[in-house]
From TrEMBL:
Transmembrane segments: none annotated. Belongs to the glutamate 5-kinase family. CDD domains: AAK_G5K_ProB (cd04242). It is an enzyme of class 2 (transferase). This is Glutamate 5-kinase.
Length: 268
C-alpha cells in the first residue's frame, strides 16, 4: 500500500494542461495524438464516476500557427488576436474528440478577478455546478480578450487553482513538460534533485522555482508554486506531473507515486 492510496477516493478532479504539453516542441503545431490520449483518459475518469474539469492553455500558440505567424508573438494585441482564433480551434477539436469517447465538453472563459465579485463568482459557480450535474466536461481558459494578465505572466496555473477552489475540487493535477518540481530547473542545472512531496511552501521552495524552460511555455515553475499555495491553503491536494505521459493521470488516481504532491492544508 502506498501513502498516496487515499488519492483513489478523490471525486472532483481538475486537470490543467500547458501549451508545452499540447504542442510539438520542434514546430509549435498542435500535438493531436497527445490531445486524443488526454481526452481518452479524461473520458475514462468520467466513466469511473469522477467529476472532471479541464483547464487548457494553448490558444495563443495554436492561433499563431493558424494565422500563419512564423514566430511566437510578443505584442499583447497580436497575442489576443491569436488567442481568439486558437481558442475556437481548440474547442472544436476538444468537442470532436470528447464526442468520439461518448462525452460532451462545454467552454468556460474566466478572468481571475472572479473571486472578488460575489455576483460573478456565484454565476460561475452555478455554471460549473450545472455542467457537472449534466455530466459535461467544462474546459476552462482565461478570457484573453478582456484580461491580459495571463498572457503577460503565463498564468493558467493559478487560474486552475482558483477554479479548483471555486468548484470545491478534491485534487488539482498540473500537467507540464517535466516530471514535477526539482530543487532547480533541470534544463539548466544537471545536479537538480527531484522533490516527490511538499508539505510547506516557504521562501526556500519559491527560490527553487524558475521561469519557463521551453519556447512555448510561459509561467514555468514560479506560477505552479503560486497555484500550489492557493490550492493547498483551500485544503486541496495538487500534483505536478509529466503530460508527455498522459496515462500518469490514471496512475495518480490509482495512488501511484507520480509527480510532485503538494498536500492540502487540513482545515480544522
Ligand atoms: N525548480 C524547477 N523544477 C522543474 N522545472 C523547472 C524548475 N524551474 C523552472 N522549471 C522549468 O519550468 C518548465 C515548465 O513550465 P512551462 O514551460 O511554463 O510549462 P507549461 O506550459 O506546462 O506550463 C520546465 O520545463 C522547466 O524548464
Ligand atoms: N490563455 C493562454 C494561456 C497562457 C498560459 O498560461 O500558458 P501555459 O504557461 O502554457 O499554461 C493561452 O491559451 O494560450
Amino acid at each position: 500500500m502506498s501513502n498516496r492510496d487515499y488519492l483513489k477516493d478523490k471525486k472532483r478532479i481538475i486537470v490543467k494542461v500547458g501549451s508545452s504539453t499540447l504542442t510539438h516542441p520542434e514546430t509549435g503545431h498542435l500535438n493531436l495524438a497527445k490531445l486524443d490520449k488526454l481526452v481518452q483518459v479524461l473520458s475514462d475518469l468520467k466513466n469511473m464516476g469522477k467529476d472532471v474539469i479541464l483547464v487548457s492553455s494553448g490558444a495563443i500558440p495554436i492561433g499563431a500557427k493558424a494565422a500563419g505567424l512564423k514566430e511566437k508573438p510578443t505584442d499583447i494585441a497580436i497575442k489576443q488576436a491569436c488567442a481568439s482564433v486558437g481558442q475556437a480551434t481548440l474547442m472544436m477539436i476538444y468537442q470532436k474528440f470528447f464526442r468520439e469517447f461518448g462525452h460532451t465538453a462545454g467552454q468556460i472563459l474566466l478572468t481571475k478577478d472572479i473571486m472578488d465579485d460575489e455576483i460573478r463568482k456565484k454565476n460561475a459557480e452555478n455554471t460549473f455546478k450545472e455542467l457537472c450535474n449534466l455530466d459535461i466536461i467544462p474546459i476552462v481558459n482565461e478570457n484573453d480578450t478582456i484580461s491580459t494578465e495571463e498572457i503577460e505572466f503565463g498564468d493558467n496555473d493559478t487560474l486552475s487553482a482558483i477554479v479548483a477552489k471555486l468548484v470545491q475540487g478534491d485534487l488539482l493535477i498540473l500537467l507540464s513538460d517535466i516530471d514535477g518540481l526539482y530543487t532547480d530547473d533541470p534544463r539548466k542545472d544537471k545536479n537538480a534533485q527531484f522533490i516527490p512531496e511538499v508539505d510547506t511552501i516557504d521562501e526556500n521552495l519559491l527560490n527553487m522555482a524558475k521561469g519557463a524552460g521551453s519556447k512555448v511555455g510561459t509561467g514555468g515553475m514560479v506560477t505552479k508554486i503560486l497555484a500550489a499555495k492557493i490550492a493547498t491553503e483551500a485544503g486541496i491536494d495538487m500534483i505536478i506531473s509529466n503530460g508527455n505521459e498522459v496515462k500518469n493521470i490514471l496512475k495518480i488516481i490509482e495512488g501511484r507515486e507520480k509527480g510532485t504532491l503538494f498536500k492540502g492544508i487540513k482545515i480544522q
